[in-house]
Amino acid sequence: MQVRKRFGQHFLESSWTEKIVRAIAPRADDQFVEIGPGRGALTLPLAATGVSIRAVEIDRDLAAELTARAPEGVTVVTGDFLDLPADTLLPPSGPVRVAGNLPYNISSPILFKLLSLWRETGRLVDATLMLQREVAERVAAGPGTGDYGPLSITTALHADVTRVLQLPPGAFRPAPKVHSTVIRLAFRPMRVDLTSYQLFQTIVRTVFQQRRKTLSNALKPALADGESGPDFLSAAGLDPMQRPETVTLDGYARLANLVAASRHRP
Q1: What's the Rg (C-alpha) of the chain?
Q2: DSSP 4
Q3: Residue 202 belongs to what H/E stretch?
Q4: Per residue in 97-116, is it b (16+ CB within 10 Å) or e — as a string?
Q5: Are residues 65 and 93 in the same domain?
Q6: Which CATH number do you get for residue 232?
Q7: 187-240 residue pLDDT tens
Q8: Of the candidates 39, 46, 203, 226, which lies 20 to 30 Å from 253 by C-alpha distance?
């Protein structure tokens, strides 16, 4: 079958699939959502463990091929994971685990969608995902590093991140030009209390659009007329002269909550 470059398709070799299935450690009563099953390299051995799987595939030809080969317990959903609602993506009830070899070109939007699904439903247990190594570093990055940003902060808010496997380009056909990393997200309740999740996201995204500026200057576009960035930052225990990548998740939460409280004052 022809590889569709626009879908970022690279198919996993079977020896590496076995390692990933062992790392996932499926139990027979697990329910999985698989993102981008392709030809079923992960789907079929995972299904052989007795789990049920909803495999979401954007490529109609691959979806049809997998449907024809899929054993009992595998449901193939044809569509774009990013566009489908929760009631289409998830089984009707019960906890859900996620697995997938994410297309390199849209892995960040998929990660944000997973975090949104967790907030919306509370049903996700974990997600074992293969990512381009550079994206995995961004997901797991901590404060003070060049990879730290909105993706790592939002992930840390919702989940604990573990690196599981490193894969060379030769683990795929065709071989990509990048290395890959398998990570696991273990979902949990949000680590900090937020008055407004939307405002928190706006502040984080805004300051990192200008990450080379001081925090005080980078924050300005997120504030309304008359709001003082230095005052909010000082009240949150933050130095207005520090850089956005040095602020912890807790620091951004304190800042966002102070801004939200000032806007709802009678």
Answers
A1: 20
A2: -
A3: helix 197-208
A4: bbbbbbbbebbbebbbbbbe
A5: yes
A6: 1.10.8.100
A7: 999 999 999 999 999 999 999 999 999 999 999 999 999 999 999 999 999 999
A8: 226
* 17 and 53 inside one domain: yes
Find the helix or strand (DSSP H, E) in which 76 lies: strand 74-78
CA–CA distance, 178 with 254 (Å, rounded to integer): 38
pLDDT of residue 2: 42
Measured CA distances, 86 to 37, 99, 117, 166, 247 (Å): 18, 16, 7, 30, 33
What percentage of the chain reaches a pLDDT higher than 70? 95
CA nearest to 165, candidates 12, 19, 10: 19
Neighbouring CB atoms inside 10 A of 207's CB total 28
Considering the domain architecture, whether residues 126 and 248 belong to the same structural domain is answered as no
Spatial separation of the C-alpha atoms in residues 263 and 266, rounded to whole Å: 9
